[in-house]
Write a structure and sequence with these properties.
Blueprint (H helix, E strand, L loop, with lengths): L5 H9 L4 H10 L18 H10 L5 H8 L4 H17 L3 H16 L6 H11 L10 H8 L4 H10 L1 H4 L12 H9 L6 H17 L1 H11 L5 H7 L5 H10 L6
Helix pairs in contact: 3-5, 4-5, 5-7, 7-9, 8-9, 9-12, 11-12, 12-13, 12-14
C-alpha cells in the first residue's frame, strides 16, 4: 500500500514532469514579471496526471493539503485543491461541509488559490455550500468588491452552483446570485473577470435565455466587450450582432 504522505504525493507528481510543458506553462498562466501569475513555478504536469496522483493519495489530511497549498509550485496547489474537492464530494453533514468550506475560503483569503485554473477547479464545487443560503450573499458581495483578483473571480464562480442547482439536485435553479454579482463586477478592470462573468451569464442563458436577454437589455451598452462576447456566445449570429452594436465599450 502506498504511504500517504505529502512527500510521497510530491514525488508522484515529479514522475510526470514534462520539461516542454514546464517551459510553456509560465507563458500560458501569465507568470512573468508584472503579470497576474507572477512568480508561479511550474513542473509541467498535465491536469489528468495531477488528478491521477490526487486519487492515489486520497488519504492525505486537511493539514497535509494545507502544506501542499503553501507550496510555491503551481501543480502542488492544484493537487491540494483537487484533493479538497474530493473530500467535499464525500462530506454529507452540514458540519463537515461547513468545515471544508471555511477551510477553502481561508485558502482563497490567504492567496493560495491564485490563478484562474485553481479558482475554476474548485470554486464551483464549494459554491454548492451557498445554494439556498441567501444570508451568504453578503459573503459573495465582499469577495466581489475585494482588491484581490482571485477573490473577485471566486465570487462569480461560486454562483455557478446556484445556476446548476437543479442538475446538482440542490433545489430549483437560482440565477439571482450570478446576476447580482455580475452587476457588481460589471465595470471591473481585469480581463479575467470579464471572461468569468460572461461565462456565468452564458450559463444562465443556456437555462433561461429570456433572463439573459433582460440582463443584456439593461447592461449590454456598458459591458466590456469580452464579457459581452462570452455572454452571447450561444445565441444565433443575428442576435449576437444586434447585442454587439449596443455596446459602447472597447476590448480592454
Amino acid at each position: 500500500m502506498i504511504e500517504q504522505t505529502v512527500a510521497g504525493a510530491k514525488a508522484a507528481l515529479a514522475a510526470f514532469v514534462n520539461p516542454e510543458k514546464a517551459a510553456h506553462f509560465p507563458k500560458f498562466f501569465k507568470a512573468g514579471p508584472g503579470q497576474y501569475g507572477e512568480g508561479d513555478i511550474f513542473l509541467g504536469v498535465t491536469v489528468p496526471n495531477v488528478r491521477a496522483v490526487a486519487k492515489e493519495f486520497s488519504g492525505l489530511t486537511e493539514a497535509e493539503i494545507y502544506e501542499l497549498m503553501n507550496s510555491a509550485i503551481h501543480e502542488h496547489r492544484l493537487l491540494g485543491l483537487i484533493m479538497l474537492v474530493a473530500k467535499w464530494k464525500k462530506a454529507k453533514t452540514e458540519a463537515a461541509q461547513r468545515e471544508l468550506f471555511d477551510f477553502y475560503l481561508r485558502l482563497v483569503h490567504e492567496g493560495r488559490v491564485n490563478n484562474w485554473d485553481l479558482v475554476d477547479t474548485s470554486a464551483p464545487y464549494f459554491g454548492m455550500y451557498l445554494v439556498g443560503k441567501p444570508d451568504d450573499m453578503d459573503l459573495l458581495e465582499r469577495l466581489a468588491r475585494s482588491d484581490s483578483l482571485w477573490e473577485r473571480r471566486a465570487s462569480i464562480m461560486f454562483t455557478f452552483a446556484s445556476t446548476r442547482a437543479a442538475v446538482l439536485k440542490l433545489g430549483p435553479a437560482d440565477f439571482e446570485p450570478t446576476l447580482h454579482i455580475a452587476e457588481i463586477l460589471l465595470h471591473d478592470k481585469h480581463d479575467l473577470i470579464h471572461k468569468a462573468v460572461g461565462w456565468m451569464l452564458r450559463e444562465v442563458g443556456n437555462r433561461d435565455v429570456e433572463i439573459l436577454r433582460k440582463f443584456l437589455s439593461r447592461y449590454a451598452a456598458e459591458m466590456p466587450r469580452t464579457m459581452l462576447r462570452y455572454a452571447i456566445e450561444k445565441l444565433d449570429a443575428d442576435e449576437r450582432k444586434m447585442w454587439l452594436t449596443k455596446t459602447r465599450t472597447r476590448e480592454r
